Fold:
Amino acid sequence: MSINVNANTDLYRECTTEDTEGNETTPLLTNGSVQTRTKGASFASSVFNLMNAIMGSGILGLAYAMASTGIVGFCILLVIVSSLAAYSIHLLLKLCDQTGINSYEELGERALKKTGKVLVGIAIIVQNIGAMSSYLFILKSELPAAINSLLSPGSTGSAWYEDGRLLLILVTLCIVLPLSILPKIGFLGYTSSIAFFFMLYFAVVVVVKKWSIPCPLPHNVTTLSGAFQISNSSDSECTPKLFVLSSKSAYAIPTMAFSFLCHTAILPIYCELDRPTKSRMQNITNVSISLSFLLYLISAVFGYLTFYAHVDSELLLGYDVYMPRDIMVMTVRLAILLSVLLTVPLIHFPARKAAILLICGGRPFSWLIHIIATLIILGVVLLMAIFVPDISNVFGVVGSTTSSCLLFVFPGLFYLKISSRPLRSFNSIGAALLVVFGLIMGLISFSVIVITWAQSS
Structure:
């Protein structure tokens, strides 16, 4: 491949990986050719984008996961899942460094021919559409209440902002669509930094409000709907449990896996990184996962120590019951909703990329295809969020299958198929264990969900 020395030297240098000593190694490829771009994303921008891809509504359910596993059990599982997530990203980056491929789908094709490419593409599309739909569903349900809580207590009834579907359409057209239609994921670094500070504010509020709700919890509490909730709290329930094992514990690992799933955004971020070396991207990954781990742990610990066994599956609902018009709770609810809203365009990017790659192959970039794919995907997501009455179980199944595949199974399997390292090497053994862990986790979580359905029916 010939490269013009004057015009393309900087471009080629930007689109190649380097080893730890700065030596040029394998060029990053897209569909067999060196990828061209104008300017790389900064280190900080990439960290914020990756953290935004990691952190979403999952932070609301980790306190419940701690109540289902105990403090020590939760911490052990959180360390294991976050470490495995970082390790699986390490394997993906090593494959990119060895092959020059910067696309999850193309790695699948290299490992398992066309079948691998299709499997990865479908998994990314299903996973990300499911995640986007669940986020918009949360917005549809919670945004009217969040806005109404900020207004006077006497405001009722028929205001336009109390219609969740109308609000959802407005925010999708005015915020999600313009951000989603951007051609590069690096442009979302500014909105991702805002979303990160919203999550940081959430963690601070959870810590502060630990001392605002007494334990044992009040016996008679008027909920937002006006009904009375009877609490049978006792002093014994104010003692934190170190280990808990129950049927609810089976949901803990899938919840954590979903909370650390960012693999669909890793390679697009790597592709657009300024000076895209493996070590540089690995540092971004380590910083992002470490900060996310810290916020997750703080929120889960203090959320659990506030409500103990009575913690709700969505943490903020507990504050609504016991502190219905607290200004910090109201503002943090709005902040979380805005953070979720700003996460949707970031999740949309790899879904659109996978759809275009599966349908159009390696065609050059086209604004027409780009816009049509954006509108179709957002249209499907919006329709699902508006008309599906209860999507939690559907996306529970999707999450237990696609999340475990993208997070554990595919990175390990692709490394074993592509890498030339011997099977007894450290990374090969780790990749095999990653595949086994992902299959077991996915099978257990899927089985628990199906059994729960059968019992409830």
Remarks:
- The chain has 15 helices and six strands.
- The longest strand covers residues 24-27.
